[in-house]
Design goal:
Blueprint (H helix, E strand, L loop, with lengths): L2 H29 L8 H33 L19 E4 L1 H6 L1 H6 L7 E5 H11 L4 H20 L4 E4 L9 H12 L3 E3 L2 H9 L4 E3 H7 L9 E9 L5 E5 L5 E5 L7 E13 L2 E8 L5
Helix pairs in contact: 1-2, 5-6
Length: 289
Amino acid sequence: MSKRDSAHIILMIIMGLIIGLILATLLIVPLQLYNLSGPWDTVVPASICFILGVAGIIIMLIRGREILQALSSYLPSGNGIAPKKEFQGGKHIILDTSAIIDGRIADISQTGFVQGSLIIPRFVLDELRHIADSADSLRRNRGRRGLEMLSRLQKDSDIPIEISDVDFEDMQEVDAKLVQLGRILRCPILTNDFNLNHVAELQGVQVLNINELANAIKPVVLPGEELKVHVIQEGREPSQGVGFLDDGTMIVVEGGRRHINSHLNVIVAKVLQTAAGRMIFASLKPDKE
């Protein structure tokens, strides 16, 4: 057990004892009106003090962190995370590990669409460092990219970055901690993790999904419109070729297989919205006679 954990436990014991004794005093004072005589005059008050004192200690040891965090949200000012009223109205956003590694939040923050400040929990930073120190090269590169994106956010972004020391030691999963923090602070979680998105919404926590934002701002393409596409690979069907728009939208060109590595003028036939994003089906533009 670290010194920090020991100090936290001692603080919870002291606070629990004080709260228990205060409640005991509030109960004992009315009992004095009954003028208890004999041994009851000392046994009853002592029993009440003992029971409530122990109960206060137990409650603070088990739920002290959540209680203090909830109480601090009502204070006009203080250290650490801002009061609850400042977290309402979308003024603060909690960053998930996946959103930091993704990196697009650094570009989004420079556009001015994100208002308020970004909260990065300490346990998210710990997860990033753990990924960056992984023996697997892919995970290690993703972790280091996340740390680089975080450094870029702190240096280049005009949005304040707040590091939160709030933790939930009774929870092991980072996603569960993020959802609990979002519930307590009443502010949304920014992520592109589908599972976290689903779990958070089930528990009433607002989620800002970067992938959904990217899909929402893609240009609208309607059937019958003409596009110019660079066909770069074969499609699933024998005659199909595949190209991509500048925003990454896939275009499947009927009859484009024989035109790979060519730029073609195509006519949009239909647009499909899938879980992975938008997909456009097109046909070759007929040559003018």
